[in-house]
Amino acid sequence: MKKKGIAANLYTYNSLILHLGKAGKAAEAGQMYEELLMKGWKPNVFTYNALIRGYSVSGSTENAYAAYGRMIVGGCLPNSSTYMQLPNQL
């Protein structure tokens, strides 16, 4: 996209984060999250859910809960999907 001069928006980043996470590339999904912040986009519940899911699927429990913490601190309200994505710590 960058090579073609197409600017990414929040929906583009959300899609990238979701699909990188599904592919087991949680670190790359985290990099996309950081990039969207640097570009001035405000993450929404979909952004955080995709990020949390990616970390959870890859077994990175600490990062999943850290993303949840950033969500809360950033003023983004979780939804039922958020809680389903969080790893169970029983």
Automatic annotation (TrEMBL):
Keywords: Repeat, Transit peptide. The keyword DNA-binding does not apply. It comes from Dichanthelium oligosanthes. This is Pentatricopeptide repeat-containing protein. PPR repeats lie at residues 9-43, 44-78. The keyword Glycoprotein does not apply. Transmembrane segments: none annotated. Belongs to the PPR family. P subfamily. Gene3D superfamilies: Tetratricopeptide repeat domain (1.25.40.10).
